[in-house]
């Protein structure tokens, strides 16, 4: 069976993915979530012409160097001066306070000298200085946050300024995660002589959370179809089911057999990539199913390439991921027909990003994956590349 190119596989996976429902969340809980609707300002900011400095509000025409003006009142943030500034007058003003009627500039206090009720101008004022016009930041009705935006701290601050205490966001897709294999025990347990610790479960649980999903840990099932099926049923309500391990062709690789028995429609299996070739993609009723290869590096690379975009699509997340490139720090050999994701470490040299592929690339080696900060993407049949060649990167951090 021909292996499916990565781009085709991704397109097939994402075509027809529907976003999750909308929920309203208070700002503190909305942080990090994806906005479901456009958000318009409910007010104008600043709502009045405001001083940008501490000093005196006055008429520029009165304020030549040496002029003496009478201080007739005070305007501070939270309480304005109700009168107006007449000829030869000034109002003491503080940052953020409404600029009183009649004044057309703010003279900073460093350029004045105060003598009782009189302020002496030491440096001439210029009309319009240090005044923030009403609506400088935004006006009521302006749409400043668009649906699909990930709510970073800047967006949360803006939403608050626009006087939204709660925001409509997409529900986080629930991702059920099941590790399979007789050899696996949970971290902290005592493995038998032929056993290892399950790293994929905890790793992918963390991955799902970081990608914006809600992980549902189904634990570890042994290599037994009935046990795997029972565990899968415990995750029936999840939007996405991720099976880890047993995706390949061995006698004890039971993921696909179990899923088929349960009625999964297989969309595709086996991708032209390394690591991660045996990825299974299908649907079980309403649930999107991903069967990840068990090798820990393969599982994480497949999650980065397929699970993350799937979660993002369900969230309606439109934030861009700009392409990243770097110069090879060492030469690389020609590639075969699979798209290669090569674990590597980047450095900055003379302001330029340089990437060093690791010499060992075994898909079982988590130590090297954790030491990597990027994957070099080597397209199928890429020619040998010399040191200094510009190559595409997928940053891992
Ligand atoms: N004859 C062939 N054999 C294999 C092929 C192939 O095309 N023909 N593909 C290889 C590739 S590529 C991969 S990747 C693996 C994928 O195998 P499975 O998805 O069936 O995974 P397992 O056999 O269950 O496990 C592989 C490996 O990973 C360890 N593992 C599994 N789950 C976990 C976990 N939760 N935490 C940590 N480690 C885990 C498992 O013990 C194995 O060592 O197949 C190749 N074989
Ligand atoms: O694709 Mo497997 O993931 O090469 O080890």
From TrEMBL:
Domain of life: Bacteria
Cofactor: Mg(2+)
SMART domains xrefs: MoCF_biosynth (SM00852)
Keywords: Magnesium, Metal-binding, Molybdenum, Molybdenum cofactor biosynthesis, Transferase
Sequence ranges assigned to domain MoaB/Mog in this UniProt record: 176-313
Gene3D superfamilies, per the entry: MoaB/Mog-like domain (3.40.980.10), MoeA, C-terminal, domain IV (2.40.340.10), Molybdopterin biosynthesis moea protein, domain 2 (3.90.105.10), Molybdopterin biosynthesis moea protein, domain 3 (2.170.190.11)
E.C. code: 2.10.1.1
InterPro entries, A to Z: MoaB/Mog-like_dom_sf (IPR036425), MoaB/Mog_dom (IPR001453), MoCF_biosynth_CS (IPR008284), MoeA-like (IPR038987), MoeA_C_domain_IV (IPR005111), MoeA_C_domain_IV_sf (IPR036688), MoeA_linker/N (IPR005110), MoeA_linker/N_sf (IPR036135)
Record pathway: Cofactor biosynthesis; molybdopterin biosynthesis
Recorded catalytic activity of this chain's protein: adenylyl-molybdopterin + molybdate = Mo-molybdopterin + AMP + H(+)
GO cellular component, one term: cytosol
Any single biological process term in GO: Mo-molybdopterin cofactor biosynthetic process
GO molecular function: metal ion binding; molybdopterin molybdotransferase activity
Entry similarity comment: Belongs to the MoeA family.
NCBIfam families: Glp_gephyrin
Function as written in the Swiss-Prot or TrEMBL entry: Catalyzes the insertion of molybdate into adenylated molybdopterin with the concomitant release of AMP.
Protein's UniProt name: Molybdopterin molybdenumtransferase
């Amino acid at each position: 069976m021909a292996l499916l190119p990565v781009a085709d596989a991704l397109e097939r996976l994402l075509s027809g993915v529907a976003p999750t429902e909308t929920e309203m969340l208070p700002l503190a809980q909305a942080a990090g979530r994806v906005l479901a609707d456009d958000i318009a300002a409910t007010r104008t900011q600043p709502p009045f012409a405001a001083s940008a400095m501490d000093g005196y509000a006055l008429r520029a025409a009165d304020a030549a160097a040496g002029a003496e003006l009478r201080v007739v009142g005070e305007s501070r943030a939270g309480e304005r001066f109700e009168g107006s500034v007449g000829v030869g007058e000034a109002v003491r003003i503080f940052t953020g306070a409404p600029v009183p009627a009649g004044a057309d500039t703010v003279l900073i206090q460093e350029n004045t000298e105060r003598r009782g009720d009189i302020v002496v101008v030491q440096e001439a004022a210029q009309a319009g200085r240090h005044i923030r016009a009403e609506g400088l930041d935004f006006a009521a009705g302006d749409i400043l946050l668009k649906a699909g935006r990930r709510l970073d701290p800047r967006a949360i601050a803006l939403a608050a300024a626009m006087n939204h205490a709660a925001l409509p966001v997409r529900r986080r897709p629930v991702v059920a995660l099941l590790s399979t294999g007789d050899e696996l025990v949970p971290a902290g347990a005592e493995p038998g002589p032929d056993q290892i610790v399950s790293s994929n479960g905890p790793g992918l649980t963390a991955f799902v959370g970081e990608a914006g999903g809600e992980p549902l840990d189904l634990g570890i099932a042994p290599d037994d179809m009935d046990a795997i099926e029972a565990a899968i049923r415990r995750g029936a309500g999840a939007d996405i089911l991720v099976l880890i391990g047993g995706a390949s062709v061995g006698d004890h690789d039971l993921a696909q057999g179990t899923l088929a028995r349960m009625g999964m429609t297989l969309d595709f299996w086996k991708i032209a990539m390394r690591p991660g070739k045996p990825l299974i993609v299908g649907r079980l009723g309403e649930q999107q199913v991903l069967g990840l290869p068990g090798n820990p590096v393969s599982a994480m690379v497949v999650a980065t390439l397929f699970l993350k975009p799937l979660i993002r699509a369900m969230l309606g997340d439109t934030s861009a991921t700009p392409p990243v490139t770097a110069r090879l720090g060492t030469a690389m050999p020609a590639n075969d027909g699979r798209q290669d994701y090569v674990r590597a470490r980047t450095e900055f040299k003379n302001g330029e990003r340089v990437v060093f592929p690791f010499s060992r690339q075994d898909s079982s080696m988590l130590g090297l994956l954790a030491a990597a900060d990027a994957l070099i993407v080597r397209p199928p049949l890429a020619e040998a590349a010399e040191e200094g060649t510009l190559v595409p990167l997928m940053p891992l951090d």
